[in-house]
Amino acid sequence: MDKRLLSFVVDKEAQQLFIHLDFEGVNILVRSMERLRNNLQKNECEHEHLFSVDWGGWELSTSMPLKSEDGEKPIHHVKIYGWNDEEADKNGFDRTIKEFEPETRVPDGSPTEEQQARIDNLTDEHVRIIDEAILASLSTRWLKVARIVGGAMAATSKKVPNVPDIFYSERVRHLAALGKLEAQGDLNYMRFSEIRLPS
């Protein structure tokens, strides 16, 4: 039996989209993107449909991770549009890349009650694994904390599952205080601060 994973999963607030792919799933998505790119090179606006079997297609799977958050659900139809400059402007898209001013930046915040319960259940060994994953993700060049956190979370997802990114960010601050890494910017804002290996 052929196997394939290309799942789009949305969280319960519909604020985050998680894409789960295996090699064949990546190929399906890449082929769709290449068709859109080729059309845009000819200044043609087209779109691609990805459907689950439940919705009469074959591209999307509806499989979800065993450790999914409550309220997450798979998407059965993904429609991807390719817009040229004229059509993008005509349809009212604001494509300006905006720089965030410090006063508009939202700090990482505090864990929810549920997240705090998971954090409280961590052992010293769990914390060691997380710290090692953070340090292993570092480079000699400056990288966004959010990128390092994401990489460390992926690396520890099996050994330490369902630990919120807020805790990883907290560990980054702890490691910085110990001199295990160098930081620039306010580490309370993982999207707007950077870290690297000590020089």
3D architecture notes:
This protein is α+β, with helices and mostly antiparallel strands and 199 residues long. The chain folds into two domains: 6-90, no CATH class; 102-196, Arc Repressor Mutant, subunit A (Orthogonal Bundle). The chain contains six helices and eight strands. It has helices at 23-41, 85-90, 113-120, 124-136, 145-155, 165-177, and strands at 6-10, 17-21, 47-51, 73-74, 77-81, 143-144, 182-184, 194-196. A three-stranded antiparallel sheet has the order 2-1-4, with helices on one face. A three-stranded antiparallel sheet has the order 6-8-7. The model has no long low-confidence stretch (mean pLDDT 91).
The largest sheet is: 3 strands, antiparallel
Question: How much beta, percentage-wise?
Answer: 15-25%
Spatial sequence of strands, sheet with the most strands: 2-1-4
CATH architecture of the largest domain: Orthogonal Bundle
Radius of gyration: 20 Å
Domains (count): 2
Helix content: 25-40%
What's the level 1 CATH class of the largest domain? Answer: Mainly Alpha
The tally of strands reads: 8
Low-confidence stretches: none
What would the principal axes of the Cα set say about the shape?
globular
Structural class: alpha+beta
Q: Topology of this structure?
A:
Layout: E1 6-10, E2 17-21, H1 23-41, E3 47-51, E4 73-74, E5 77-81, H2 85-90, H3 113-120, H4 124-136, E6 143-144, H5 145-155, H6 165-177, E7 182-184, E8 194-196
Antiparallel strand pairs: 1-2, 1-4, 3-5, 6-8, 7-8
